[in-house]
Amino acid sequence: GAQYNSLEHQPHPKCLEGTWVDLLYYIHKLLDNQENNQLIWLHGTAGIGKSAVAFTVAERMRGLKVTEQMDVRMQLGGISCKNTKCCMAGYFFVMLVYQLANNFPNIRNDVNRAIRENPALLDPDTPPCDQMEVLFLQPLQKL
Fold first, then answer.
1. What are the tens digits of pLDDT across the range 34-69?
2. Residue limits of the Nephrocystin 3-like N-terminal domain (predicted)?
3. How far apart are CA 34 and CA 30, in angstroms?
4. Exposed, middle or buried: residue 18 (CB in 10 Å: 0-12, 13-18, 19+)?
5. Are 55 and 9 in contact (CB under 8 A)?
6. Could you give the CA distance from residue 139 to residue 114 in angstroms, rounded to a whole number?
7. Closest alpha carbon to 22 in 49, 59, 61, 62
8. How many angstroms separate the CA atoms of 132 and 134, rounded?
């Protein structure tokens, strides 16, 4: 349920016209700069509009799909934590890597191989540091 197009998030929350203008401009500017890789972490109190901002940005970016033939260095990935499972540390890297592998074909084979060799990596009781190392860092270091 953490994916952008999950049925759990229908209808998607979106920013109302004229709200969060400065923040959306800032995020879009970061995402449009292909020279820098950026991690954007939205945080704040419940109800402040984090999901609306994230889904508004995702809506703008959803047309981008990276293929092996494309020379695109930028892509959007993220997690929404409305689902109780999403808030558990044991699911964090699994969900993030799932989205990255779907959007970045260059790491998909490495992620699949790691899971075939050690299916326990998908278990939420596996230490997050192990999941991060094998599912996230190792495949990304090969890029």
1. 777 666 888 889 899 988 898 888 887 776 554 444
2. 28-126
3. 8
4. exposed
5. yes
6. 9
7. 49
8. 6
pLDDT reported for residue 40: 80
The tokens for 76 are 């959007």
Q: Please list the alpha-helical segments (H only) found in the chain.
A: 21-32, 50-61, 89-103, 105-117, 128-131, 138-141
The Cα-based distances of 124 to 4, 62, 80, 143 in angstroms read 21, 29, 17, 26
At 127, the amino acid letter reads: P
Neighbouring residues of 128: CB distance < 8 A, sequence distance ≥ 6: 89, 90, 92, 93
Residue 112 half-sphere exposure, CB side, CA atoms within 13 Å?
8
